Amino acid sequence: MRVAAIDCGTNSIRLLIADVVDGRVIDVSRRMEIVRLGEGVDRTGRLSDAALARTRKALIGYAAEIAELGITRVRMCATSASRDASNAADFRAMVRGVLGVDPEVITGDEEARLSFAGAVAGLPAEPPYLIFDIGGGSTEFVTGSAGVEHAISMDVGCVRMTERHLHDDPPTPAQIEAATRDITTAVETALAAVPGRSARTVVGLAGTVTTVTALALGLDAYDASRIHHATVSRAAVAKVTGDLLAMTNAERRALPVMHPGRADVIGGGALILSIILERSGHDVLIASEHDILDGIALSIALPAA
């Protein structure tokens, strides 16, 4: 079954067109655009006109590809920014007008379930798992073996932490310390709700994790095939985090693995990643290129997934 899955988060909007065969997701096309839908939401509580326009432009391109391939099974999920915004109805109307289907503004629990399903499919590692997905506005923490057993969503993400704390270029030690306190409080709350410290395997999802992994591996270009299921030590993550926070936006943008739309918020995301590993007591991370987008694709073909 060929399906189209769209994940619209705080920072990026992504499209996966895939064939789902015997419970496996076989890629036809993956696309990602940084649209920063959640820009300013933490401060204003609203999606800005500019952010909606950027998202609409990306969605028009996705809709054209879906139509060209004749795909009728489409699911779009929207996460943190559109949950938080007071004008979410404007976002839904825009999506319906462009894509022809309503976006599902999913709960943190549903986001966790879809992320878990996408991450564990084909994962060559031993359960129980701690899986976390660092987004622009929130981070989901999930534990389980065959399925989700515990999940929680915390309002710490790379965009939210950058807008809230990391104002200078590069951020000052005081700003980093404020962000560290904020993130640590959220991570400790999450680990009190989900038994992540007792997991045997830790899996990190989304662009912050894969970019930090690419930097830790010393890649000279972003290579998803080398990043997917790569292992990275806590010490390597801490070093990359320190390096990123010490750089200017221009220096981060010049890194060969860096998406230019991620450069200004990657320091905040890396800090979240580093603190999760530190506070959970795990020394090794597995990075996954398969995440909520794959979970959405599976849910279309296998509604119980």
From TrEMBL:
Pfam families: Ppx-GppA (PF02541)
Domain Ppx/GppA phosphatase N-terminal: 16-299
InterPro entries reported in the protein's UniProt record: ATPase_NBD, GppA/Ppx_hydrolase, Ppx_GppA_N
Signal peptide range: none
Source species, domain of life: Bacteria
CDD domains referenced in this protein's UniProt entry, alphabetically: ASKHA_NBD_MtPPX2-like
Protein name: Exopolyphosphatase
Originating organism: Paractinoplanes rhizophilus
Lineage of the organism: Bacteria, Bacillati, Actinomycetota, Actinomycetes, Micromonosporales
